[in-house]
Amino acid sequence: MTTTMNDSNRKQPWALVLGASSGFGEATALALAASGYSIFGVHLDRKGTLPHVAEIVAAIEKTGQQAVYFNVNAADAEKRAEVVAEIEKRTDGGKSGTVRVLLHSLAFGTLKPFIAATPEESMSQAQMDMTLDVMAHSLVYWTQGIVWKGLMEEGGRIYAMTSAGGHRIFPTYGAVSAAKAALESHIRQLAFELITRGIAANAIEAGVTDTPALRKIPGNGEMIERAIAIHPAKRLTLTGDIARAIVDLSRPGTAWMTGNVIRIDGGEDICG
Fold first, then answer.
1. Alpha helix stretches (DSSP H) within the chain
2. How far apart, in Å, are the Cα atoms of 185 and each of 5, 160, 211, 264?
3. What is the pLDDT of residues 164-217, one digit of tens each?
4. How do residues 28-54 score in pLDDT, each as one tens digit?
């Protein structure tokens, strides 16, 4: 039987958030839960940060929604298959629930120059491959798993977090910059291939945001100072700015907006 939009609307909407325990992923999971979405969260945390994950889960459940979190490596093919299988089980194969939103917000890569004083201080092939795989290519593999299983239907939305680093140069940011550029390319290809299924795919370019991922970038203090200095509003982008925008972009009526890099930065990128 063909699934219609009306059928889909009667199902419990879920969001699958990759990188759900901090930064943009955390904020978006909470905002979507407050808007009626249950949350599948994929994260990779050690013992010290697991209490915060429990706090996020509790906050989601307080909204009356379900929170199913998986502490796994999102780039591991076997773990990805296990998570997709659990999503299939929880949604009764897409009969009782549907993944309405997929957010790729994975920030795990190597921050090294390509050519430093020694080979040991320079980017290796393994480090380059890992960065691209986690921060870009994994988007394609997660989308394949969800779509092939019929877990995302007409009305679905796919978002991938990119940054100005995809077209600008920062010291030690080369591999991540390449990953962001590849991520934007993957979004364009997915948009092209999924429009006939009624699924939209867009990249979200956030302004400089004070997140745990930013704090790992050498020179992050200078990046923050520069962003504030050039910004007409004299403030950084907040994770809540991104979360609220994704909630709004996921409402009915925006399916024809696809294949874009959408800047949510208060005008930061055009200023500098």
1. 5-9, 23-34, 50-62, 77-90, 125-132, 138-148, 174-194, 212-215, 220-230, 239-249, 268-271
2. 28, 11, 24, 19
3. 877 878 888 899 999 999 999 999 999 999 999 999 999 999 988 888 888 888
4. 999 999 999 999 999 999 999 999 999
Give 118's DSSP letter: S
| Amino acid at site 114 | F
DSSP-derived pairing of the beta strands 200-206 and 261-264 = parallel
What's the CATH class of domain 11-264?
alpha beta
Neighbouring residues of 210: CB distance < 8 A, sequence distance ≥ 6: 224, 236
In one-letter notation, the amino acid at residue 204 is: I
pLDDT for 172 equals: 87
Q: Closest Cα partner for 237 from 250, 223, 216? A: 223
